[in-house]
Design goal:
Blueprint (H helix, E strand, L loop, with lengths): L9 H15 L3 H5 L4 H16 L18 H11 L4 H5 L5 H8 L4 H13 L4 E4 L16 E5 L2 E8 L10 E7 L11 E7 L5 E5 L2 E2 L2 E2 L4 E10 L3 E2 L5 H37 L12 H29 L5 H26 L10 H11 L6 H17 L10
Length: 399
């Protein structure tokens, strides 16, 4: 492992960094304004430029038309992309975890009609698991059902926080397809549902942390889809779900580090330039120096945890402990760094003259999505204690 950007991807890293800093961030407010008629045309133009310059879908495997970066190399690149939320779509990185999941089991029709167009950015595929009223930290709690009626699956249920559902052509829907006689983790299947299917409705866009989120609540009322829209094997939904979770958690961590870096830059520049009544700068205050120290150590620790987890995945490991620890630590780190940056900016930090207030709101959400803190903390503890129970030890330098 190297702690700095490896030479093999240095040029690519610089290209992506320049693209984000020079072309995306200057138009970030406009890109985030979904009511603006210019937003979509600017986004489409930037997407085309990214494709022309070879910066598109860098983390997707080459076999599906992506850049084929290893997880470790992608960690460095995605950290830069994470500095701006619109960059995820503009550079085609948003779909990597769902595409990796579909690729693991897709038949030829699914690959040609669902997977490859999603990689190319021609359409979006949403992932529908979470339900209102169900403890989604354990996906086996879901109640949405599907049963076979001849050559069709009939889907009934309700999902919410289905990211991107209002702009997606397809949804991967986690459904209960088996009865009580089947082991709990084999009762669920993943079924592809086109958004134009009769009986599918976007009920409302959930207003989250002061913003319209595009994480809507959706209903499925006698939605009929062909039998061939089953993704993978019947009863294999939970296992397939797991193939998406590790990449999703890790790629999120990569981006959160990029956001923390951006907040750190803003905070340090503010401390070095903000004058006090006596003409002194904030930088002369020990408390401000402590803020910098705290943020530096937290960001650096999170980076090393993410790089370590990425290397483990490249080696074929599930990295259950490493990814759970990194996900929890990175989400909390981001919230802490942003909190200090806002405090240093004062009134400027809580208005949209800087990106900090928006980043802060979403940082709080990150401690819940893809498994809340409590689930990951419990997993890390249980996995490590199991090793000791069986007579082993967790050797930090040996793993």
């Amino acid at each position: 492992m190297t702690y700095t950007v490896p030479e093999r991807i240095r040029q690519l890293y610089d290209q992506v960094s320049d693209f984000v800093e020079d072309r995306i961030i200057p138009q970030e407010k406009l890109l985030l304004d979904e009511t603006s008629p210019e937003s979509e045309s600017i986004r489409a133009q930037l997407m085309n430029e990214a494709k022309e310059e070879g910066l598109w879908a860098l983390g997707h495997p080459e076999s599906m038309g992506g850049g084929g970066l290893s997880w470790l190399d992608y960690a460095y690149i995605n950290e830069v992309i994470g500095r701006s939320d619109p960059a995820m779509n503009i550079l085609g990185t948003y779909s990597v975890q769902t595409c990796v999941m579909i690729d693991a089991v897709a038949d030829e029709w699914q690959r040609e009609n669902v997977l490859l167009p999603a990689v190319r950015g021609e359409h979006h595929v949403a992932f529908a698991v979470t339900e209102p009223g169900a403890a989604s930290s354990d996906p086996t709690n879901i109640t949405t059902t599907a049963y076979l009626d001849g050559d069709e699956w009939v889907v009934d249920g309700r999902k919410w926080y289905t990211s991107g559902a209002t702009t997606s052509e397809w949804l991967c829907v986690m459904c209960r397809t088996e009865g009580e006689d089947v082991p709990r983790h084999h009762r669920f299947s993943m079924i592809l549902v086109p958004s134009e299917a009769e009986g599918f409705h976007v009920e409302r866009d959930i207003f989250v942390m002061g913003t319209h989120s595009n994480h809507p609540e959706c209903s499925y009322r006698d939605v009929r889809v062909p039998k061939g829209y089953l993704l993978g094997k019947r009863g294999g939904g939970f296992e397939l779900f797991q193939t998406r979770l590790a990449p999703a958690r890790l790629t999120n961590c990569m981006r959160w580090i990029g956001q923390a870096q951006r907040a750190f830059d803003l905070m340090c520049n503010r401390i070095n330039t903000r004058e006090l009544r006596d003409g002194a700068l904030l930088a002369t205050k020990q408390l401000m120096q402590f803020y910098v120290y705290q943020s530096y150590t937290e960001i650096q620790a999170a980076r090393l945890m993410v790089l370590d987890a990425a290397e483990k995945m490249d080696q074929g490991s599930q990295g259950r402990v490493e990814i759970s620890a990194a996900k929890t630590y990175a989400a909390n780190m981001l919230q802490s760094v942003l909190d200090r940056a806002i405090q240093v900016h004062g009134a400027l930090g809580v208005c949209d003259d800087t990106p900090l207030e928006r980043m802060y709101r979403f940082a709080r959400i990150y401690r819940i999505v893809d498994g809340p803190d409590e689930v990951h903390i419990e997993r890390v503890g249980k996995e490590i204690l199991k090793i000791y129970r069986d007579g082993g030890r967790w050797g930090f330098s040996e793993r």
